[in-house]
Specification:
Layout: H1 2-20, E1 41-49, E2 51-53, E3 56-58, E4 63-64, E5 70-79, E6 84-92, E7 95-104, E8 108-116, E9 120-128, E10 133-141
Parallel strand pairs: 4-10
Antiparallel strand pairs: 1-5, 2-3, 5-8, 6-7, 6-9, 9-10
């Protein structure tokens, strides 16, 4: 029995030593997440939509027709410390197009902002008060009149 225990321990140490000394090219790559959380705020959902009804997003999409004119960024989050604030920072074609500060009044909270939009590659970043990235959503306003699905 001692013989098998010794083999098991030796095998475990061998696997541990091998996994720690693997060359970089053999280690699995880790995809960079598009969301990061601070200790105080966690974004549960970030979405872009065409409207808000009963405090919920409607018309969620990642591609919108040019006639859309205005989109809403809806955020559901939980905060350990409140009241606090977050920001929605809008970018079009990699240039900042605006920033909107939003109050977070409760530990579980839904909030949203709206932005007039035009054709281009857009993204909106949810940031905490210190400017740390909480979440990001990319979307497109097409130059076409209608979106076919």
């Amino acid at each position: 029995m001692k013989k098998y225990a010794f083999i098991g321990i030796a095998l475990a140490f061998g696997v541990l030593a091998y996994s720690q000394t693997q060359p970089e090219e053999l280690k699995p790559s880790v995809m960079q997440e598009q969301t990061s959380q601070t200790a105080d705020i966690k974004v549960e959902k970030l979405t872009v939509c065409t409207g808000i009804e009963n405090k919920e997003p409607v018309g969620e999409a990642v591609t919108f027709a040019r006639e859309t004119g205005k989109v809403y960024t809806w955020t559901k989050l939980s905060a350990k410390t409140f009241p606090t604030k977050i920001k929605h920072a809008y970018y079009v074609n990699q240039k900042k197009a605006g920033e909107i500060e939003l109050a977070v009044k409760f530990s579980s909270f839904r909030t949203w902002s709206s932005k007039n939009v035009w054709p281009g590659a857009w993204k909106v970043e949810a940031l905490d008060e210190a400017g740390n990235l909480l979440s990001v959503m990319e979307f497109t306003i097409t130059s076409q009149s209608q979106i076919t699905q």
